[in-house]
Fold this protein.
Amino acid sequence: MKKLSLIFVLALLFNCSSGSDDGPTDPPTPQPPSAATLTFPENNQECNQGTSINSTQSSVTFTWQAATNATSYDVVLKNLDSDVTVTLGADTNQKEIILDKATPYSWYVVSKATGTTETATSDTWKFYNAGDGITSYAPFPATLVAPTMGANLTGVTSVTLEWTGSDVDDDIAHYDVYFDTVSPPTAQISDDQTATTANATVAAGNVYYWRVITTDAEGNNSQSEIFEFRVD
């Protein structure tokens, strides 16, 4: 009887030792997400497909194409009138948001993935949320391009200010450019121009501030952000 028990134990040991000794398999490395592609509200357009809540607000469903490897998203929304930015989380590729009517906004989406801190950011789009009875909208605030915010320029005596403009009604009439060593800038260096560049004289040792005011054919206008740069 003891002999049989010993044979049984040896058999068990043999079976256990003959199995795989590879050990546990490491979990796959989390892959970073790709950038989302925005779909609605459309870029540089009037958004008139929202659901009216009251005379001042409406609800709009933002949508974008699902990003590869993304498990969640942040919708970053900026009111271009007040410069207030909010970040709203989403678990799918859409988010219903309450907006002010007759107000310009910009938005973009940040893709996130579980298990990694890497993110990806979509393009930034602008739109006007429709207003009751509004037939003409102010232009979007100009997007300042160069010099970039916080730039440090060396060995220059002049700079070319560059920006882009857009308007739902496509009726931008002109731009006024303000450039100064104080903020907000009060010295107007160009007015009633249609070009989207302007030259400015600078001197070493100064910090400069600039902004652009855009006016449309109806007399509506908007002010850009204020950018600053330093000249050494």
Q: What stands out?
A: The chain has a mean pLDDT of 91.
